[in-house]
Amino acid sequence: MRTLILMRHAKSDWTQGDRTDHDRPLNPRGRRAAPLMAGQLLSHGISVDIILASSAVRVQQTLELLQESWATETAVSTERDLYLATPAELKQHVDALHDTWQSAMIIGHNPGLSLFASMLCDDDVELPTAAVVILQSAADSWHSSLTQQPWHLVDYWKPRDLEAG
Question: pLDDT, tens digit, for every residue of 114-132?
């Protein structure tokens, strides 16, 4: 069984016009949403073996807030090419995962992340900021999860829904 958690970075700050897109930080709403999503993952007993994260500042800040909420250390790989990655590029990253890892998380950007989730589960998945989608495949390897076994959408959480509930 393989579990893939896809998370879009939390809400970023557009008011700092002197920064490049890559260097935009989180805004206050984003700094509240990331720990909320970390708590949601924890409350459902979801853990990950490896986190792949874009090098963008807003992703790194989202990751830091997740890690502050979790009591365990998780392996992290920060990848520059996850910044605005396409579904094909995301697929390559998943295909390259070690088969000893049963669960992986990718923290990245739209539109690629939403398109990748939609492609894997053959459904229309739109990830607003800080949203999390959890996918599972019965495959015994990451490669076969992408080539032979279908992915099933297990959970889909948006911060706005959790705040309202």
Answer: 999 999 999 999 999 999 9
